[in-house]
User: Fold this.
Amino acid sequence: MFGGPTKCDAPPSMWNIVAWILQGVLALVFLFHGILYALGPEPLVRSMREQGKWPGIPTWFRVFIGVAELLAVVGLVLPGLLHLFTFLIPLAAAGLTIVMFSASIYHLRRKEVTAVPVVGALLVMAAIVAIVRWQVAAL
Assistant:
């Protein structure tokens, strides 16, 4: 039951391809978002804050989130490419799932309902990668 072989309709190689595609999409999204949050130049941050498009969180927390997202990008891609420490892939994806769940609550509390579908899609993609890389097509 638990920890035993998983029987799926699709061959593991197909799940491997699906996981790599999702990992690539997540890596690109979080690379750009992490750079913006961690290294956002002050003129850009100021203009976005004035327009109400920048989150109302302390600067140190914004930078922390950006660095965590950049580390997640490394954890999603590098272990699979190098075939070293591949257990980090589902852990990075699970961490992003938690971050996206928190982000969905944050946006809902601020009544930013237009952001919720995007955040929800990223949450689902990260959860799929975590499950597939942990149980179905581990590297």
User: Anything to note?
Assistant: Residues 12-136 form one domain.
